[in-house]
Fold:
Amino acid sequence: MKIDYSLVTRRTFLNTLFGGWLAAFFSGSVYALMQFAFPTLGKEPDFVVLNASDFIDIPLNSVKPFAWGGKVGLFFKKADGTATALKGLCTHMECNITYKQEDRKFYCACHEGWYDEDGKNIKGPPPKPLELFNIKTEGEKIIVFKKGIKVESKI
Structure:
């Protein structure tokens, strides 16, 4: 039956409603199964272990990226020889940041955000500083971990 001046019949409307319900049910079920099968998917790790020989010898005033879960982390060796690690994502919209050696600052090209060498936001839209990590060296390994996380020795 079609209502006068209507473009959709009652059967088409009900079939569309039922089909939408089925699609929502199955996509929710698949999502729940994926969360059960891969519980750490999309979550950030508490720590990562890096090979020290890959990072210790980088030049002063330069960065080397590493995998921080599914995101990028940056191992940064300052001009004074000290090293730090930070998450390589802008705090505004999570775009990747790069280090500008000539300016000695981190730069987000998405919305022209700037951070100083300590990760503090100094210009542009980023609302807060970059996330800094702690670094611990054990033999041939460098352990990069979140602040507040206790990492056991002998990893």
